[in-house]
UniProtKB/TrEMBL annotation:
<dbReference type="GO" id="GO:0003677">
    <property type="term" value="F:DNA binding"/>
</dbReference>
<keyword id="KW-0238">DNA-binding</keyword>
<feature type="region of interest" description="Disordered">
    <location>
        <begin position="1"/>
        <end position="26"/>
    </location>
</feature>
<protein>
    <submittedName>
        <fullName>Putative transcriptional regulator</fullName>
    </submittedName>
</protein>
<dbReference type="Pfam" id="PF01022">
    <property type="entry name" value="HTH_5"/>
</dbReference>
<dbReference type="InterPro" id="IPR036388">
    <property type="entry name" value="WH-like_DNA-bd_sf"/>
</dbReference>
<keyword id="KW-0614">Plasmid</keyword>
<dbReference type="InterPro" id="IPR011991">
    <property type="entry name" value="ArsR-like_HTH"/>
</dbReference>
<dbReference type="InterPro" id="IPR036390">
    <property type="entry name" value="WH_DNA-bd_sf"/>
</dbReference>
<keyword id="KW-0804">Transcription</keyword>
<dbReference type="InterPro" id="IPR051081">
    <property type="entry name" value="HTH_MetalResp_TranReg"/>
</dbReference>
<dbReference type="GO" id="GO:0003700">
    <property type="term" value="F:DNA-binding transcription factor activity"/>
</dbReference>
<keyword id="KW-0805">Transcription regulation</keyword>
<dbReference type="InterPro" id="IPR001845">
    <property type="entry name" value="HTH_ArsR_DNA-bd_dom"/>
</dbReference>
Amino acid sequence: MSNAKAPPRAGTNGPGAAAPSCPPLTERPLTAREAEIAARVFKALGDPVRLRLFSAVASHESGEACVCDISDVGVSQPTVSHHLKKLKEAGLLTSERRGTWVYYRVEPAVLGALGKILVSAPAPA
């Protein structure tokens, strides 16, 4: 029996949790836990290659992208795999192996959650 644990999914309270449990930044100060979760997501997206890969998956016509369709980001294939792994660990992407290819999808709640946390306060009247 293995002691390895699967990474928590987005929206959970585990280390791989993404932004869904965080309120808008303008609503109230974040708790330490909320800040930790949000920082993990922003750190994952803070790398230009990871941001390009995330964008390629999020904007793909079918809602998912084969690694073979998104790997042209100016780095080697092992580096692409490393960055995709980091995005998965942050709870931003999910993946499914089909034969020799891996297909990636944006975790369903992530885009809405990212938009929610960055929403601006209404302008004063």
